[in-house]
Write a structure and sequence with these properties.
434 Repressor (Amino-terminal Domain); 4-stranded parallel sheet; Rossmann fold; alpha/beta; about 45% helix; elongated; about 15% strand; DNA-binding; homodimer; 13 helices; 3 domains; 6-stranded parallel sheet
DNA sequence: CTGTTAGCGCTTTCAT
DNA sequence: ATGAAAGCGCTAACAG
């Protein structure tokens, strides 16, 4: 920066100000000088060092984000929504994935916090006590998403996975289905999947239907192949099953494909429903009944909330914990 | 850190050393003291501030990564491979997406470089002159991936998209197909897609087949819906078409589904091939012929190469530019 | 509007 | 093995 300043014939501070966000729209001569500074930066190949700026001001300009995996369009869309909501603010996302392993969250959160993010977004409402303690000690706004935790750490932007899958069960019931199975994981590593299963079981009970056959296809992430295997198991186990609710659309698509390979008519003989409104479920034949979650909307809402919370925190008084309940929508389509 | 030091009764330096990576395996009394430091950190809720450490040492501990979009499992797997290769080193990924917009690359690279990453991975070999200049001025190792650029900036880990799609065309020819179409984007925003189309066209010419009907379905990212539309257009345009090569598996899956909706038998009447070996192509019925790219392997190779290059750069003499050509594999399956 | 000064919290270096 | 001191490059605060 000193080099650039010398090159233009001004002080470092003038360069710093010219490069600061919102440095446009000044008096004409100042604007001209600013352009000279920018030109000099380009000529000298100088890019401002935010590493130093962040350290000096105590404001890192980072928002930390924890998601289970990148390889799931529900979560990547949430990240896209977060990016969209925050990019104008100059804050950058610092992304980390747990790959659905509970033991990874704590070191990941520690690694993220070591970069002194100004806020953090979690895709979960389930954490170890140490993780909670770390997050609380960090004294930054926290947003938990994709669930509605009973005891939120701070803010929440989520929905009830159980209520959503219950809605699917009621839809299946309304379509005349009576023997309804659940295919998915039953692992605490995926609390959202667990919630969906519980919602299914409760709804069946409430409707006076027999308890679901639950097919546990293993650990998350649940693949299409696991969905196919799950369907194969289900057909062994119960010949009279007439509907299967799957933990996610990829799982449901795998199950559907297995039916196609076996010549089982969907939805005539067997109805299949998924969860999450993934692209594959909109494109396949028959199209999958599912629950549409506004993934990008969760990201945007979390981002906007976090920006407000960060601004409040900078102003000295933290934003009182907010709880944003996002809508979900049953998408009744051809597979049921 | 001073608080922790006081709490344990040692100096800041002792705390710093206890918290440094590779601080394990010391003499017993030291190890004990180290444990006391760690306990104090937990008790006080202290997490080390890498913001200051990075600034002080001039080593940010970041690797910057630029990908077109998160919402594509090919790229997210590459990121997973990168993570796997680099996580033991203590370097963290700083991820940015261009969303396939050429104008976004330059500000994104600038934003990433402002965090002083120690290396950068790009998912592209096509850049504006200013972007190239910035990258060169940053004097850090650069790895371009997913292509084989003619004039690499530094290192390359990629493969020939054209050669890969040519292999698919030869496969279709060997299966007796003669009128072969290409469905995909023809936008410079997706140089890999363009390369695939060119490879297809050249292979047809080399085989003495008629030029491909090229269906341009618009800007990337190419969705399943666009693939379906593309197939609809293709069937309007040329009733005698007997094969369609799609720019990616999602596009091919959309095309396949459109055929299913129209009662067009795949592969009997029309063969369909995709690209990228996405999960959907392995799971659908019929399974899609495609080109398997080792996405995670590209990420791992890029990560390992970058670690070597960073180590060399720290040692003072940069690693001479490497070019790693990754294999691809034709996966002949049911759709052809 | 521009310039000067001080200081952010670590780690490197050097001394003990 | 531990401690003391210096310094990384920027920006907040204040002065001109």
């Amino acid at each position: 920066m000193a080099d650039v300043a010398r090159h233009v014939g001004v002080s470092k501070m003038t360069v710093s100000r010219a490069l600061a966000p919102g440095a446009a729209a000044r008096r004409a001569d100042t604007a001209l000088r600013r352009q000279r500074v920018l030109d000099a930066c380009e000529e000298l190949g100088y890019v401002i060092d935010r590493t130093a700026g962040a350290f000096g001001t105590g404001r890192s300009g980072f928002i930390a984000v924890v998601i289970p995996t990148l390889n799931n369009s529900n979560f990547s869309e949430t990240v896209q929504g977060l990016t969209a909501a925050t990019e104008a603010s100059g804050l950058q996302l610092l992304l980390g994935t747990t790959e659905y392993r509970a033991t990874r969250e704590e070191p990941l959160v520690r690694a993220l916090l070591s970069r002194r993010p100004e806020g953090i977004v979690l895709t979960s409402g389930t954490h170890t006590p140490r993780t909670r303690a770390m997050l609380q000690a960090a004294r930054i706004p926290v947003v938990e998403t994709w669930e509605l935790p009973r005891a939120p750490i701070d803010h929440v932007v989520g929905f009830s996975n159980a209520a959503a899958s219950a809605a699917v069960v009621r839809h299946l019931h309304a379509q005349g289905r009576r023997r309804i199975a659940f295919i998915g994981g039953t692992s605490p590593l995926d609390p959202r999947g667990m919630d969906r299963r519980r919602g299914c079981e409760r709804a069946l009970k409430a409707l006076g239907l027999p308890a679901a056959v639950v097919i546990d296809v293993g650990e998350p992430p649940i693949s299409m192949a696991q969905g196919a295997l799950g369907m194969a198991q289900l057909l062994e186990l119960d010949k009279d099953i007439d509907a299967a609710l799957c933990v996610s659309d990829p799982c449901a698509f795998g199950a559907l494909s297995e039916c196609q390979r076996r010549g089982i008519a969907v939805p005539q003989r067997l109805a299949i429903a998924g969860f999450g409104d993934f692209e594959v479920g909109r494109g396949c034949v028959p199209r999958l009944t599912t629950v549409a979650v506004d993934c990008a909307g969760i990201g945007r809402a979390a981002g906007e909330l976090l920006l407000r919370a960060i601004a409040s925190a900078r102003g000295g008084r933290p934003l009182t914990p907010q709880k944003v309940v996002m809508p979900f929508q049953l998408m009744a389509r051809d597979s049921t």
